[in-house]
Amino acid sequence: MNHNLLSQLRNLQKTLTLADRRLLVVLEGSASWTLSTAQEALDFLGSRSVLWFSQRVADQAWVLPAHKLNHELGREADHAVFDAYSGLNPDALAALGGNIRGGGLLLLLAPPLAEWKDFHDALREKIAVEPWGRHAVRTDYARRMAWLLQQDPFVCRISEQNGFSMAELPPMDVQQRVPDELGCVTACQRQVVDAVLHVMRGHRKRPLVIQADRGRGKSAAVGIAIRQLLQRGKRIIVTAPRPESTETLRNFANVEQEQSSGSLAFIAPDKLLRSTPAADLLVVDEAAAIAPELLKAMLRHYSRAVFATTVNGYEGTGRGFAVRFQRYLEDTYPGWVKLTLDEPVRWQKNDWLEQSLNRALLLKPVIAETKSEPHDTDQSISECGFSEFHYHDDVKTENQLNQIFELLITAHYRTRPSDLRSMLDGSNVRLFTLTQGDRVNAVAMVAVEGQLEGELAQAIVQGRRRPHGQLLPQTIAVHLGLATVLAQLHWRIVRIAVQPDVQSRGLGSELLRRLVATATEQKVDTIGSVFSGNQAVLAFWQRNHFAPARVGYTREATTGDHSLLVMRGLSSEGTEITRAARTRFAEDFPLLLLDSHRQLAVDLVLTILDSIETRVEYYERDQGDLQRYLSRSTTFENVAPAIWRMLWGRFIKERHWHSADDCRRRLVVMKVLQNHPWEICIDGLGLTGIKQARSLLRQSIAEWTQ
Q1: Which of 4, 157, 431, 703 could form a disulfide with 165 if both were Cys (CB 3.0 to 4.6 A apart)?
Q2: pLDDT per residue over 527-579, tens digit each?
Q3: Are residues 222 and 76 in the same domain?
Q4: Are both 496 and 534 inside the same structural domain?
Q5: What angle do CA 20, 40, 74 make, to 5 degrees?
Q6: Phi, psi of 83, rounded to the nearest 5 degrees
Q7: 116/88 Cα distance (integer angstroms)
Q8: Which residue blocks in 415-543 are alpha helix, DSSP H?
C-alpha cells in the first residue's frame, strides 16, 4: 500500500475516532494483495487489538474460529478483519461487527466487487449437497452483497487497481458517556438495572422483558443488577441456550465470595425444567433462541423472572420472540414490563458499520410499504399468487427478499444470518411464496432431497456416511430400515411461515396445497417435514394430510421437544414408502412410549393417537381382567399389562376417549400408556393424592373402554 493510501486511511480513522463510530472498508484485489495490505494498514494505524476471521493469519493473531463464533461475542477490539477468501460466512461477519468499538474499522478482504457474481469462496463445499455437488451451489448471496456494497455511501473501497474511493462522511453528534457509580454507561442501562431490582421487590408474576440490538450493554446491565442482588443474599439462576453466551453477564455479576451471601448458578433450559431448583430470581439470557413453550413453562415455575434477548445479530433474532411470547405475556401476565435498550455502549447512535451490516445481512429487514392489504375472505386466499422466488439485483426483488426473511425470522426462534446464504445459494434449496399484490403473505423454504444411489447409498445404510442436507431420506432409511427411500425424490419443507396479521385464515394450508400440486407435477415421490414437535404444529400438518412417521429419541435443549417427522406420499412409489414408514412407526410407538418417548407431552401423544393404527394383540383373558378392575375386584397394578394391551389393541382405535374429560384422558396416557409413577401423575395433573388418582384412573379407563 503506498504512502498516500495509508495517509487517507489514517485520516479516515481520525474522523471515525472523533465521531465514535465504525466503518466498513472493502479491500478489493487478489488474495495475497488484500492480506498484505490489511496487515500493513493495521501496523501503520498502530492497532493494539485486532480480531481476525481468516485462515491465513499468524499463529499469534487473535482469531475468531468458525466453530466458536459465540466465544468472543462479549469482547471488544480496536479493529476486525473478515477474510472472504477464507469463506463468506454470514454468522462470522455479524459476530465481528458487534466486537469493534467506536472509531474502529472492519476490513473486508475480497475480490473486486464486480467479480463477486463468479466468486466461489471456501464455504462453497460446506453448502454443497450430495449428489448435486459444489458446482450446483449458486452465487446469489455474494452477488447481492456486492450490489449493496457498491451502492452503500458509508462503505470505503480500496482497490488494488483503482485505489481509495469513499464518499464524504456527514458530521455527526457525539454523546459523551461517563459510567455512574454502578458502572452503567447509558441511561438505558441504569433503567434496566432498576427494573431488574424492582422485579425482586415488586409484585410476583410480573416478568420483565429486556430487548436490545448487539452492543447496547444489555448483558452488562443485567449482570450489574445481579451483583446488587447477590450482595443482598439472593439465590439467582441464569439459563441460556449456551453457557458461553452468558459470559459477559456473569463477568459483570462477579462478586468476591466474602462479599456475597447469595448464589449464582447456570442451568441449561431443559435441565432447569426437569429439576426446577428453588431460586429468588430466574434470568433467561438470549431468550429468543429458546422455544416459547419452554419460556412459558419457566414462568409457571418461577414467579420472578427476567427475559433478556438480542433483537438481531449473531445470537439469532428476537422478533419472533416479540410476536409470539409477548403476545402470551399480554394474555397471561398483564403486569409484565418491557424495556428496549436503544443507545449503543460500544459506539454512537447511527453507526455507519451497523447500518451497512444490517442491510447486507438482513439483520433488520426493511419492508417497503406494500400496495395491497390482506382481505379476510376465502376468495382472497384463492386469488393469492403462487410462485417460486428467484433473486435478481433490483429494488423490487430486494424488497420481496426482505419480506421473506422477515417472515422466516418472525416465525422461527433460531434464525441466523447464515440462513440467508442457505436460502440464496443452497444447491437444493427452493423458496415458494403466496402473494397479494407486492405483499408476501406466506413463504415456504423447501429442500430437495434424495436421488442417492450406488456406493453413497450403501455407505449411508451401513452407517459410514451421513451427508448433510439429506435429512428426510436418511432418517427413514437409517431409523426405519427402508433403504429404497434414498433413491427416490423428496421435498422437505424446512420452514413455512405466514404473516402474523393473516394467520389462522387458511393461508398456510393453501400454500401447502399448492406446494403438493407443484411437487406432484415435478414427479416428486414424497413431501414431508422435520420439526420440533408439539401438538399445535402436528395438528396443522395432520389437517393437511401429512402423517407422523417418526419421533426423535431425545429432547432438544432449547425447545424441550422431540423432533417429529411427517410425510405424505405423492407418487405410487412414494405412497408405498410412506405407508411402510407409517406402519413401522405405529407398530413401534406403543413400546417407545414406555421408554424413550415417555416424556412426550400428553397433548402430542393424543394427537399422534388420532393418526396411527396400532397392531397390539390382546388375549381373551385380558377382557376379564379389565372387568375385574372396573368392578373394583382388583388393583390397577395387578392387571396393568392387560389394560395396556386392551387399550392399544382395541379401544384406542374405537376413539371413545375423544368424549372423555381432558384430565381423565391425560391420566390414562400418563399412567397406562407412559407408565409414569403415581407421584408424577399427581403432580402433573394437580391431584390431591394417591386415593384421588386411583379413583380417577378407574373412571377414566371406564370412559375409554365404554
Answers
A1: 157
A2: 999 998 789 899 999 999 999 999 998 877 666 778 999 999 999 999 999 99
A3: no
A4: yes
A5: 45
A6: -95, 100
A7: 11
A8: 417-425, 454-461, 471-480, 507-521, 535-543
* DSSP-assigned states of every residue in 553-613: EEE-TTT-SEEEEEEEE-SHHHHHHHHHHHHHHHHHHHHHTTTTTTTS-HHHHHHHHTT--
CATH of the domain at 300: 3.40.50.300
Rounded Cα gap, residues 376 and 369, in angstroms? 20
Asked if 521 and 234 touch (Cβ cutoff 8 Å), the reply is: no
pLDDT in the model for residue 320: 63
Instruction: Using the CB atoms, write b or e for 364-395: b if 16+ within 10 Å.
Output: bbeeeebeeebeeeeebbeebebeebebeeee
Q: For residue 334, say if its preceding peptide bond is cis, omega within 30 degrees of 0.
A: no
480 lies in the same domain as 571: yes
Q: What is the pLDDT of residues 59-115, one digit of tens each?
A: 778 888 877 776 676 678 999 999 999 999 999 999 999 999 999 999 999 999 999
Q: Which residue has the cell 476486525?
A: 80
| pTM of the predicted structure, to 2 decimals | 0.89
Residues 663 and 579 in one domain: no
Give SS3 for 384. Answer: coil
Percentage of the chain lying above the pLDDT 70 cut: 94
List, for residues 589-614, the tens digit of each pLDDT value: 999 999 999 999 999 999 999 989 88
Asked if residue 264 and residue 238 are part of one domain, the reply reads: yes
Q: Specify the pLDDT at position 314.
A: 47
How far is the C-alpha of 224 from the C-alpha of 226, rounded, in Å?
5
SS3 state at 345: coil
How do strand 489-498 and strand 439-450 relate by DSSP bridges? antiparallel
360 in a domain, yes or no?
A: no
> Are 507 and 533 part of one and the same domain?
yes
- State the cell numbers at 617: 394383540
Structure confidence at residue 411 (pLDDT): 79
Q: Could you give the 3-state DSSP secondary structure of residue 444?
A: strand
Q: Give the pLDDT confidence of 129-149 residue by residue, as tens digits.
A: 999 988 899 999 999 999 999
Q: How many Cβ atoms sit within 10 Å of the Cβ of residue 31?
A: 15
CA distances from 475 to 384, 635, 648 (A): 34, 42, 26
The total of structural domains in the chain comes to: 4
Domain hosting 321: range is: 187-341
